[in-house]
Records
---
Amino acid sequence: MQVSVYRYNPDLDEAPQMREMALDIPEGRDLMVLDVLERLKEQDPSLSYRRSCREGVCGSDGINMNGRNGLACITSVAQVARKGKLVLRPLPGLPVIRDLVVDMSQFFAQFEKVRPYLINDKPPPAGERRQSPEERAKLDGLYECILCACCSTACPSFWWNPDKFVGPAGLLQAYRFLADSRDTATAERLADLDDPYSVFRCRGIMNCVNVCPKGLNPSRAIGRIRGLLVRQGV
Amino acid sequence: MVIQATALSRSGLSDFLIQRVSAVVLALYALCVLGFFLVNDGLDHGALVIFFGSPSMQAFGILAVLCTAAHGWIGLWTVGTDYIRPHYFGSRASAWRLLYQAVCALALFVYAWWGIRLFWSLG
C-alpha cells in the first residue's frame, strides 16, 4: 500500500513535504490507521505523532486521513483509503510542531474561555449536589467529548478566526454547563458568549457533526445556545 | 467576550436577529413585487409609478432599502473579518480590512440614500 505522509521538522526542513512510503498489508486484511503509523515508524523512527490509549478514549491521535479528520486508532484503512492510497496529514488549521503533531494551545485557550467547570454560588451541601434523572439526561451527548479537536479543526470558521470563535468543541462544553441544573452561572456564561464571534460565527457548515469520532452533535448544542441567548435577550 | 467596534450592533445576538428579520422583510417584499408582476399583464411606466408610489408600497420600499443596507453590512462585515486576515494579508491586514469596510459602508450608504430618495420621489 502507498502511504503519503506529511513530514516537517522545523529544525531541519525549510518547508513541509509529503513523503511517499510503502507498506505491505496482506491481502484481505485491514488495519487501523494507527497500526499503519506504527509500522511506518518502524521503517523511519523519526516519524512523529501522538498516541496513547489506542482505543478511541484519550483523543490523542486525531489526524487528517485522506481529507477527513478522525482518530487514527479507531479508523480502519478501508474506511478512508482511496484507490489503495492513504494520505495522512496533521489536523488542519493548527500550527505544526513536527510531522503529525500540532500545537493545540489555541484550541485549549478557547476551551478554557467557556469556563468548563461547574459554577454554583450556593454553599456546598454535606453530600452531593443532586439531580433528577431527567436533569441528568440533558447532559447526554454533551459530556462525552474527549477533546480530540477533530471537530474544531474541521471547521472553516475556526480556521479563519481561531482566536475569536470558540469552535464546536468549546461550544459543546459551554452548552454542557448551561444545560446543567446544578450550575448557577447561566446569565454570566451567556453574557460572555454574546458577541459577533464566540457563538455567532458558526455558519452551520456541520463539518463538526460529520467528523466527530464519538458521534456527538456540536451544531445542535450551538443552536441551543443561540436559543438561550434569544430567550434571554428579547 | 470579543469586542468589535465595526460590527453593526456590537452584540452577536442583535446582529443575528437583525440579519434574520431583515431577510424576512426582503423575502416578503420580493414576493409582493413578484406577485404584482405575475398578476398584472401589460404593465407600463404609469402603472408601475402608481403601484410603487402608493403610500404602503413607498413605506415598504423604504423599509426594504434599509433592510438591504443592514443585512448587507452584517454579511459583508462577516466576509471581511473571515477573509481579510494576517494569514493572507500579512501585517497590514487591519489596514486592508478597514479600507474594505469603509468602501462597503460608503457603497451601502450611497445605495440606501439613492433608494430612499427614489421611493420618496414617487409620492
---
Amino acid sequence: MLKKVLSVAVLLLVSVFSLCLTGCDKEKEDYLVIGGMGPLTGPAAVYGIAVHNSAKMAVEEINANGGLANGLKLKLEFLDDAHDATKVQGNYYDLLENKGMQVSLGCVTTKPCLEFKKLSVDDNLFFITPSASNDEVPAEKNGFQMCFADGKQGAYAANYVNDNYKNQTIGVFYKADDDYSKGIFDLFKTSVDTTVTLVETSFTGEGTDFSTQIATLKEAGVKFVFMPIYYTPASLFMSQAKDANAFANDVVFFGCDGFDGIESMDGFSLSSIPQEVSMLSHFDSSVTTGAAGTYIANYKEKYGADTLNQFGASAYDCIYALVKALNEIEAANPGTVTKDAKVADLGTLLEAKFKSADFTFTGVTGGGKPMTWDASGTVNKSALKFTLKEADAE
Amino acid sequence: MMEQDTVLQEKYHKSNKDKVKKFFKKHKPKKYINYVAIIICIVIFLISSGGMKRVTCTTLNEIAISILLAVSLGLVIGFLGELSLGHAGFMCIGAYIGGKVALLLQPYISSSFILLVIALIVGGVAAALAGVLIGLPALRLKGDYLAIVTLAFGEIVRSVFRNINFFGGVMGMDTKGIQYDVRKLFIIGFFLILIMLAVIQNIVYSKHGRAITAIRDSEIASKATGINVTRYKIFVFAISAFFAGLAGVIYAFCKNPTADAFSYNKSIEVLVMVVLGGMGNVNGSILSATLITFLNLKLPTWLPPNLAVLKNILYSLILIVIVIYNNAPKLKSFRDKYNFKNLMNKIFKPKDDASIIKNDANKWDRIPTKIEMNEVLSVDVNVEESTTTPDVDKGGR
Amino acid sequence: MCTVKEFLNYEIFCGALFFKKKGIFMEFIGTLINGLSLGGVYAMIALGYTMVYGIAKLLNFAHGDIIMVGGYLLFVFVGIVNNSIIALLITAVLCAIFGIVMEKLAYKPLRGASPLAVLITAIGVSYLLQSLAQIIFGTQTKFVTLFQNLGVINIGSLVIQVSTLITLFSCIVIMAGLTLFIKFSKTGRAMIAVSEDRGASELMGINVNSIITITFAIGSFLAAAASFFYLLKNPQINPTLGSMPGIKAFTAAVIGGVGSIPGAMAGGVLLGIIEMFTAKVSFLTPYTEAIEFGILILILLVRPSGLLGKKRREKV
C-alpha cells in the first residue's frame, strides 16, 4: 500500500514538477535572444557544431563591439536536435517559451527545419536558416535561407552541364532515400537539356560498396559525374573508382555544397584522386583575404580546422545579416528592436526588411558579392564552381 | 444489497479505524490507485490547460505517448512472456494509416475532434491487424527468434512506408492540416491511458489474464489444461498493437510522422522503459516511461550545448548500473538489505524490521507466479540458478 | 528509379536470357563475387554473435560496436606503424582484450540473471561505446587508407576489385581455421560441450567461466578482422559505424540458426548476395532491408530454428 501511494505521489510530483519547472518565468535580461538548433550529437554533428561555433563567434564579436546600434546585446540559445525531426517540437517551444527566443536561425539540417517551419509559421517567428537547403523551407512568409535552395543548386548544375556537355552522356550518382540528394537531383533532371543523356545510378542507406554503380557508369563511358551527395559517400565513391581504375583522368566529379569538407577529411587524401573534383558552392574555404579570410583565420584559431565548412560560414553570415537588418529597422522606427520586442512584430518587420529590394548584405559567403532575398525567401547570390582538385595528367 | 447490509452492520459495531480498514479491503483501492492518479492528472490539466505553456503541453503529450507504448509492450513482455522488439512498427502503422485517413476525410468533416476519433479507431484497428499478423509466427517461434522476427517486422514496416510516395516518402507525411491544438491533445492522450488501463487490468484480472500468465509460465502445461494458446497469443499481440497504434495516431496529430522516427531504436527505448519499470508491473512501466521521457526531453535543454553528448553517456551508464543492481545474482543480499522499500519502511515505519521481506503475492499489479521470468524467456533451463537454494526472489524481477 | 517496364525489359528478361547477352552474364558473375565477399564480412561478424549466444546464452547487442572500436583502433595504428597488416594484428589483440574486459564488467555480474536484463545491459554498453567514441574521436567521419591502390583484375568484360578477392579469400581461410579450431582443439571441443549442456560440462571439469571469456575474446577478434575487411571496401569510420553491419550480422546469425557456426556463414553469405543483387536493380534498391528481413521471416516460418539450427525439444 505504502509503495503504491508513493509511486502515485512520485507520478504526480513529476507532472507538477514539470509544470512548475517549465512554467516558472525567469526575469528576462537585457538581451535580444537568437534561438537555433542543430545536430550537436549523432552522425550529422559536424554541421551542427560548425553552425553553433560560428554563430557563437559572430555573437561574441558583435557583443564585444557594443552589440546592436542601439546598444542592445545579443544572446544565442542553441539546442541539440541530433538531426531528428521528432525533437524539434519540444525544442522549439522550449526556446520560444522558456529561453525567450525572439528571432531564430531555424535548424541546421533540412528535415528538422521543415518541421521548424511548420511550427514557427503560427507564431510568425522570423528565421533564417544557414544550411537547410530544401526548397520548401522558405515556403512560408517567415522563413528565409542563407544557403542555396536545392532547386537552385540543381538548376545551376544543369546550366553548367547544358553549356559544357551538350549532346553527351553524363553520369549521375545520388542517394535515393535522402531528401537533400533527391531534391537536387529531381530539379537537375527537369532542367537539364534534352540533348544530354543521363545515366542514373543511386544508392540508399549507409551505402558501402559502390562497385556496381561504378561499373554501370564505366560501361556508359561518361566524362562527367554529377554527385549531389554529401562528401562521406562521395569520398568513398571516388576511392573505389580509383581502385577499380574505372575512369580516365579527364572525367570530372561534380558535387554540390555537400562536398564541403572533403578536403579536410581525416585520412582521405583528395590529391590521390586522379580526376578533377569540383563543387558548386557559395563559400571558398581557401581564401585568405577579406572578410572571409578573417573569419577563416579566427575560426581555425578558436575551434580548429576540423569543423570549418560552409555551414559555419553561412551561420556566421546569418547573424551578421540579422544584425544589419535589425539595425536598419531600428534606425527607421526607433524603439522597435528591444529586449521585449514581440516575436510576431519582429517577424513582420524582418520579413518586410529582407524582402525589400534595397536590402543587400555582403558577407563571407557568396564570393564577397552582395546578396539579396527574393519574395519567396530564397537567397540570390553568386555561385562558384569551386575546383577542389585539378585533374592529373595522364 | 447483502453487501451493503454487512457494511452497515459493521459500521455500528466496529471502531472507526476498523471501518476504514474493512472498506479498503472490500473495494481494494490499491487496484484503482493508478486510475485515481491519472484522473487527478487529467483534472489538473483541464483546469490549467488554458494557461499552460505549449512546451509543457508537448512534454506531457510525449509522456502520454510513452506511457501508452510502454504499458502495451509490457502486456506482451511481462504477461505473455514474449520479447517483442518491433513495437515502433505498430506505432508507425497507427501514425501513417490513422493520419492518412484523417487527411483524406478532412475536406468532409469539419470537427477536428471527430476526425481524431475516426483516426484513432482506424489507426488502432490497422495496427491490431498487424498485431494479429505478427502473432502468427509467435505460435511457432520462441524467445530470441521471435524477438528478431518482431525486429524484422518493425524494420520492414518502416522501410515500406519510407518508400511509398502516397505516404509522403522519405520526407514523411505532412499532417499539418489535421494537427490538433497541442494544448488539448495531451488530455486526450491521458484519457486513452485511462481506457488502456481499464482494458488491460480487466484482461489481467479475468480468467483470460490467468490463462495468459499460465501460457507465460508453461506453454505445454497450459496447453494440456485446455487453454487455447493460439487464440490467446494472437489476442495479446493484437491488444498490445492496438494501443501502440493509438499512440501512433496521437503522434501523427501532434507532428509529422517520418518513417525514421519509428526505427528499432524507438522500440528499444520502449523496451528499456518496460524493463526499468519492472516486468509485468504496470505502475512501474507508467513511472519509468514518465521519468525516461521527461529526462530525454529535458536533459538536453538543461545541459549546455557542448555537453549534449554527455546525455548519452549518462543515459547508458544509468541503464547499465540499474540493470546490474536489479538483476545481478551476487548482489541479491545487498539488494534485499538496501532497497527502496526498506528505506521507506525505515523512514515511515521505524518499528518494522527492515530485514523481513513481505510476501508480495497479493499485490494487485503483479501476477503471482512460481516460475521466474528468466526460466520462461530462455530456451534452456539455467544451470547456475539451480545450484543455489531454490527460493522465489521477492526483491526485483 | 527505372519504370516497371524498363525493369521488366532489362532485369528479368535479360537475366533469364543471359547466355544470349554475354555482358549480362559477366555482370551476374561479378555481382555474385561482390556479394560473396560482402557476405564473408557479414559471416565473420555473425560468427561472433552466434558463438557468444551459443555459449553464454546472451545476445550481445554491443557486438556491432566492437567493429567500430576496431575501426578506430585501425585508424590510430595505421597512422602510427604505417603498415596495415601490423596494425590489424595489434587491433585484433586489443579488441580481444576489450571483449574480455567488456564481458567481465558488464555481463559477468549478470550471469544467471534474466536474459532480458543482459540484453538491456548490452544495449546500454552499445550506447556507451558510441558516445565515448564520439567524445574521443569527434563526430567527423574519418577515412582510413589500408592499402594504396590495389587495382583491379580484368577477365574478359568482368572487372573485379583486388580488395574483393582478398576479402573473399581471407574470410574463407579464417572461417576454415575457426572450424578446425572448434572441431579439433581441446578448448574448441570444450566450447561445444558448454553450448550443449553447461551443467554437464561443468561436472566434467570444464571451467565454464574461462570458456565464456575465451568465446568473447574470439568473437571480438573476429569482429576486429571483419572491421578490417569492411574498411577495405568502405574506408570510413564514424561512431555509428557498427550498428548497421551489426544488425545485418545478427539477422544472418538468426537465418542460419543462432548457435550454429556453419549456419552463421551461410546466413552471412546469403545476405551479402541479396544486398549486391538488389543494389543492381534500382527498382528494388530502396527495399533492400525489407527484402532481407522478409526473407528472414519466411525462413523462420518454415524452419523455426533457422537454416542449420538445432531443433530443441522442450522439456516439461
---
Amino acid sequence: MAFWIASSPHNHNKAETSALMRLVIYALIPGIFAQWYFFGWGNIIHISLAVFTALFCEFIVLSIRNKNNISKQLFDGSAVLTAVLLGICLPAIAPWWISIIGAMFAIVIVKQLYGGLGHNPFNPAMAAYVMLLISFPLQMTSWQPPLTLMTVDLDFANTLNVIFSGFTKEGYSVEQLRTSVDGFTMATPLDTLKTDLGIGFTVFESIEKNVFGEHFALGWEWINFAFLLGGLVLIAKKAIAWQTPVSFLSSLFICSFIAYTITPDSSASTMFHWMTGGCMLGAFFILTDPVTGATSNKGRFIIGALAGLLVYLIRTFGGYPDGIAFSILLCNMAAPLIDQYTRPRTYGHHTNTKQEEAK
Amino acid sequence: MSTKTESIATSSDENDEVVDTPPQDDNELALAKESRREEYKELAKQGLWKNNPGLVQLLGLCPLLAVTATVTNALGLGLATLLVLVCSNATVSAIRQWVPKEIRIPIFVLIIASFVTCVQLLMNAYTFGIYQSLGIFLPLIVTNCAIIGRAEAYASKNPIKQASFDGLMMGLGFALVLFVLGAIREILGQGTLFDGANLLLGDWASVLRIEVFHLDSQFLLAILPPGAFIAMGFIIALKNAIDSYLQKMKPKETEKAIERVRVNFDS
C-alpha cells in the first residue's frame, strides 16, 4: 500500500486513474492527427505496435508479480498512455522493432521493476526514448521530411512496408526517402539548424532551406500547436497543473530571448524554440506527469524552469539536436530533492523566519 | 570503496594461531581430515555462491562493469584477478606473523601491487591484444576491493593452504560473474560469443567465435556501461530468487518444543 503524497488543498473527486488517463489520451488526438497530416501513417503504426507490446508486457509482469485483479490494472490506461507517448516521439519511418523494444523497456524495466504505477522515479516513455536514442542512433535519427517535400509518395501500404522491411514497394530505402529533390538528406529543422550553425552558416541563411517552411518549421509548428491545444484542454479540465507548462515555456522563452537579443546570427528565435521538436508535448503531457514530477506548486515552478533551461542548453550546446527527453529525465531525478525543499507550510504553522521574530 | 572493505573486514584483534598438533591415533586423524574437508567445502561454497565477491559483496564493481562488454575481455580480467588473488592471499598469509598490525594495509597494497605488475607485464608480453583492450583496468586491479578485502578478512588470519584455496574460490566466483555478464552483454550487444578469443587464448581460439544471431545494428545499450548496470541488477535478482526458492524448498525445521522438567521436591 502506498501513501498518497499530495499537497493541499486535498480535494476529492470521484475520478479514477483510468478516467484521467483516458482524458489525457483524448487530448493527444489533435497532435497525433497533425502528425498524420504532415508525416503520414508512420506514427500511428508505431503507436499501435507500442500499445500492443505494452499491454502484453504489462500482463506478463503483473501475472509474474501475482497481482490480483489484473484486468483492472491492465486497462487503467497508464500502459496505453506510455505507449502512445512513446509512439508519438519515434521517427515515423523507424523500423518496427524500435517501438517494440522501447515499449518493452518502458513497461518492464522503467515502470514495473520499480514497483508499478505510482512508484516509478522516471517517466517510462521518456526513459525508453532515451534508451532507444543512445542504443540505436542511426534508426532513431532517421526522421523523414514532411510529406509535401518528399519525392516519393508515402501512402499507408508504403509506410507499412518501410517500417517492416526498410524499403517501399518501389524499392526506395529509408535513406532515399529522406533525400530531397536536389540530392541532400533532409533532417528535422532543429538538426538542420544545428548542423548549419556548426559549419558556419548564420541562422538567417539556414532557415532559407525548405524544411523550415514559411514560418518556423514546416509541419512541426502545426504539430506543436495541436499539442498546445490539447494541453490547454487538459488545464481547463484541471487534469494537469498549469504551473509546470507555464514555467517551462517561459523559462525556455527567456533563455532563447536573451540569446537572440545578444547574438541574433547564431541563435534561433524564441518562437522557433517553442514550435519545433517535442517542446509542447514535453511541456503539457510529459513534464506534468504526477508520478515523476514535483508535488507542490512551488516545486512545479522550479521543475518547469529547470527543464526549460536544460532544454535550451542541450539544444544550443549539447550533442543532440533536441533535449526534451534528456532534460525531463534530469528533472525527474531532481524532483524528490525539490519536493524536500519546497514543502508547503502546514496550515496554522508559521514559517521559520516569523517564529524567530516572535522569539 | 575503501570504507566497504573496512566494514567487511572483521577486527583482527584476536590473532588466532592455528597450531597443528600431531594427532594421536587413527580415529582422530580421520576426524581431523574430515573437518578439514568440511572447511574447504565451506570455503568453496562461500567463494562461488554464498559470499560471491561480485554478486553478494558487490566488490570490484568498477572493473566488473567497465570491461565486460565481451566475453573475451571479461575472461581476461577474470583470470588476471584470479591469479593476483591467489598469489596475494598466499603471500599475505605466509608473512602474517611478521606484519605489524598498524601498517598492515600498506603492506597488503604493496604485495598486491607487485603481483599486479607481474600480471600486467605477462599479459603485455603474451596477450597483447587483450592487454590493449583492457587498458587502464588491468593496473587498476590493485584497487580492487575484493582482493584487499580477502587479504584483510581471511588471509591475514589463516594458514597458507586455506588462504590460497580461499583466494582461488573467490577469484573463480568473481571470474564466473564476469563471464556471465560478458556473455549476456556480448549476445545482446553484438549477437556473438567469444568474439576475439584468439587475442586471449592464441590463434586456435578463433574457431570458438559463435554467431548467435545476426544483428543489422548493434544494441549499444548492452555495450555501454548503463547496460552493465541493468544486466548486473538482473543477475543479482536471479541469484536472490534462486536463494529464496531453495529456502522455500528446504524442509522446515520443526521448532524444538521446550519441555519443562517437573521437579518433584517431595520425593
